[in-house]
C-alpha cells in the first residue's frame, strides 16, 4: 500500500495537536468518558530489543506506552498489538513470561513472534537436524516443541568425539545434558541456527564439517562440497542493541563469517537462508498472527487499516516494514516508526528511511494515535459538512 505523503502527515499531526490543545486549555470539553472499547481501525507491532528492552531492563517509556495501548488514555480505547523480534533461543512461552514481568503486562504467545517461530513449519520436512545457539539445552527444547523429531546439538557431537573442537571442552553440566550417541552413521538433514552462538569457534567448526560432508555425515568430506545439508538462520541482524553503549555483533555476523570461511576453504559460494526481519515472509506471518489475535482476543474478524511498526534497526525493522508495505502481498498500510533508543543513533542517517523518527516508544505510540485521531476528526468533519449541505438543499 502506498504510504501517506509528507504533507498529509503534517496536516494530520497539526489537526490532532490542535484538538488535544483545545481540550487541555478548556476551549472544548472531551466527550463523556465511555467504557473502554477496542479499536478495529489500527494496531501496533513492536520490535523488542532497543525499543522496549535494553540490556534485560525495560526502557523507561516502555511501561507507560503499554498502559496507553491497554486503555489508559484520554479516549478510553484499547489498541491491539503484537511483538515481532529477531531474538530467540527460548520458547515463545518463556519469552512471553519474561516480557510480561519486564513490562508489567500480560503477554500471550498468541501475540509473539521470535525469529525462529516460522521455522516450526519446517518440522515436517526434516527428521534429524542440528540446532545451534542459545543457552544450555533451551534451543533443543524449542525445536522439539516445534515438532522436530530428532534434534542434535553441538554438545552431542563433542560428547561423541571430543577432538571435534580441539579448544572447546564441555562443562560438567554440558556433559550431563548432552545426549550420548554415535554419529558415524547419522545423517544430519538440516542445520538451524536458532539463537546467537555462545561459542563461535566450536559451532563454526561443526557447521563447516557438515556443510563440507557427504550427505550430512560427520567425518566425511564431499569431493564437490555441494552435498552437505542446508543451513537456516533465524535472522540476519549483523548488530543489535544491548546494555553496552555501542552495538554488539549478532547472528548476521556469524552468517557472514561462515559464508566467508566456506569460500576460503572450498573456493565455492555458500547458499544460506535467513528468516526474521526484513524478510517479507516474517511480515506475512505477523499479519496472520495479528489478525488471529484480534479475532480471538477482541472479537475483531477483519484486518486493521493501518499497522504501526516500531523498531530501532533501519536495516531490518524499517526496511522490512517499508518493503512489505509496498509489496502486493500487503492488504493494509504498514507504517514504519524508528526510535532512537537502540541501534539507530541521532548522529547517523538511516540507510532505509522510516515514515517517522521519534525519541522513544511512548512517542511512537502517541504519534500513531494522533494520526488516527486526525483521520477520525477529518472523516467526521467531512460527514458533518455533507449533512449540512443536504439539509440546506432540503430547505431550498
Distance between the termini: 43 Å
Q: How many distinct beta strands? A: 17
Cα Rg: 25 Å
Average pLDDT over all residues: 88
Helical residue percent band: 40-55%
Q: Which secondary-structure class do the elements indicate?
A: alpha/beta
Written description of the protein model:
The chain has helices spanning 6-25, 60-69, 92-103, 138-146, 154-160, 172-177, 200-211, 251-266, 280-298, 314-326, 361-395, and strands spanning 37-38, 42-46, 53-54, 57-58, 77-78, 81-84, 112-113, 128-132, 150-152, 190-193, 231-233, 239-240, 248-249, 273-274, 306-311, 333-339, 356-358. By secondary structure, the protein is an alpha/beta fold. The strands form five sheets. Strands 7-6-2-15-16-17 form a six-stranded parallel sheet, with helices on both faces. It has a five-stranded parallel sheet with strand order 9-8-10-11-14, with helices on both faces. Helix 7 links the parallel strand 10 (190-193) and strand 11. Helix 1 crosses helix 11, helix 2 (60-69) runs parallel beside helix 11 (361-395) and helix 7 (200-211) packs across helix 8 (251-266). The radius of gyration is 25 Å and the shape is elongated.
